[in-house]
Amino acid sequence: MSFLIISYIMSQKLDLESLFIQHDLLLIDGYSLAKISFDNEYDLVLEPILKKLKKRIYLPYSIFEKLQGDPRIYKKYFGIQKYIVVSQEYNTINEAILANKNKKILVIVGDIITGNQVLRRKKTAVFFGKKDFSFFNKGKTKSQTHRTQTKKLNTDKIKIKGNIPALNETIHYKDKNKPVAIKLTKELAKGGEGIVYETDSNYLAKIYKTDEHNKDQLKVPKYTQQKLKKFEEVKLDEYSKQHIYLPLKTLYNNNNEWIGFLMNRAKGKPIQYILGGSKERK
Predict the structure, then answer these.
(1) How many domains does the chain have?
(2) Over the stretch 219-266, which tens digit does the pLDDT of each residue have?
(3) N or C end of the chain: which has fewer CB within 10 A?
């Protein structure tokens, strides 16, 4: 039996894919999810591999309970829950390891203490330093390192030819590929990147502004659209709906261009607490 520990910042795609194939159980700790750069690594590295392999990474339940106490991290989880799922079976990483002694386990860790705790139950460990991965073998003092490759998000702005809808104008979203028109009835909040409106439906709409220096493009980069699109697959329970504004549908102008998203109304929460919004991306 062999245990591998790997830091939350990932290596080359093929290396990580090979590691996932070799292991029966994939786990993650809360320290990894809490780090700001984890979102980017999930989008660019983790999700494509997990989707290809049809595998899931499991988050022990007690860790998930702790995450619920931090709104920023709790909101982040909803954007990745398709492939990083809460385990009702195990409360801690140690419990998961002890219950699966005959399986090969890989743990994604973002904390040295957590890594050392898992090391005591392993044969092989892989850690990430500031610039590379290091393989440590039992009984050996020297390590073999592997450089990581950094991938960048698509920060190009979204091009637009049509107008940005304003108050009392009509926009639409698609339901089963059929357009559904809604009207912007009241301005609720205005920020640097867009405006939030009430609509003649039970939902709110966030409409992005055009860039001050180029009116032919939106203020937000392309990766924002890609990220928000994933939230359409997320299903919130009644408790979560009270705390999170979740993007539900992509919104289009009359030119059928992406200009924002439709979202639920979180009870008693300021508008800035939008899952995937600018506060979360910082």
Answers:
(1) 2
(2) 777 667 676 666 666 666 665 666 667 788 889 999 999 999 888 877
(3) C
- Which amino acid type is present at position 247? P
Residue-wise burial string across 151-164, b where 16 or more C-beta atoms lie within 10 A, e elsewhere: eeeeeebbebeeeb
Q: Which residues contact 131 (CB under 8 A, 6 or more apart)?
A: 147, 148
Domain membership of residue 250 (yes or no) is yes
| Residues 182, 251: Cα–Cα separation, whole Å | 10
- Note if the pTM is more than 0.70: no
Q: Are residues 228 and 180 in the same domain?
A: yes
128 shares its domain with 237: no
- The vertex-205 CA angle with 202 and 211, nearest 5°, equals 175
**Token digits of residue 139:** 């009984």
What domain range is 258 assigned to? 157-275
Residue 282 lies in a domain: no
Using DSSP, state whether 64 is helix, strand or coil. helix
CA distance 136 to 116: 12
Residues 158 and 223 sit within 8 Å (Cβ to Cβ) = no
66 and 166 within one domain: no
Q: Encode pLDDT of 156-185 as tens digits.
A: 778 888 889 999 999 999 988 899 999 999
Do 210 and 217 form a contact (C-beta atoms < 8 A)? yes
Q: How far apart are CA 9 and CA 90, in angstroms?
A: 24
Taking CA atoms, 206 is separated from 73, 155, 234, 246, in Å, by 22, 20, 18, 11
Q: Give the chain's mean pLDDT.
A: 74
**Assigned token pair, 43:** 């989008």
